[in-house]
Specification:
Blueprint (H helix, E strand, L loop, with lengths): L1 H7 L7 E7 L2 E7 L19 E5 L2 E10 L2 E7 L5 E6 L4 E6 L6 E8 L1
Antiparallel strand pairs: 1-2, 1-8, 2-3, 3-4, 4-5, 5-6, 6-7, 7-8
Length: 112
């Protein structure tokens, strides 16, 4: 039933929430698969997918991605730092930030 409902509704109600723990640092974001649908018309401009990432008390915008069973996001922060989170199908995750030499490792789960 939920799959049928999500197929007929486009919007954040059908987004998957991803929650991660990186040694006590909580990270959460949503991925709405409908954002990745092809354009209705070939002359439509490209669309940019966006999500809001909550990391501890801070929030920032990022571009989510889905590549097969791998999910995550990337962004460039206001100070020029590049941030990437990659979640593997088994839940293992890496959070990389060009301001820090050592990436954080942790686990994530997808809540639907």
């Amino acid at each position: 039933m939920a799959a049928v409902l999500c197929a007929t509704i486009v919007g954040p109600a059908c987004a998957d929430t991803v929650r991660c723990d990186f040694s006590g640092v909580a990270v959460a974001f949503a991925i709405d698969a409908s954002q990745f649908a092809p354009a209705q018309d070939a002359s439509d401009p490209p669309r940019r997918q966006l999500t809001t990432v909550q990391m501890g008390d801070a929030a920032f915008s990022a571009e989510p991605f889905i590549i097969g069973d791998t999910r995550g996001f990337w962004t460039t922060q206001d100070d020029g730092a590049e941030v990437v989170l990659v979640m593997q199908p088994d839940g293992g995750a890496v959070y990389s930030d060009t301001r820090n030499v050592t990436p954080m490792t942790g686990t994530c789960e997808v809540l639907q």
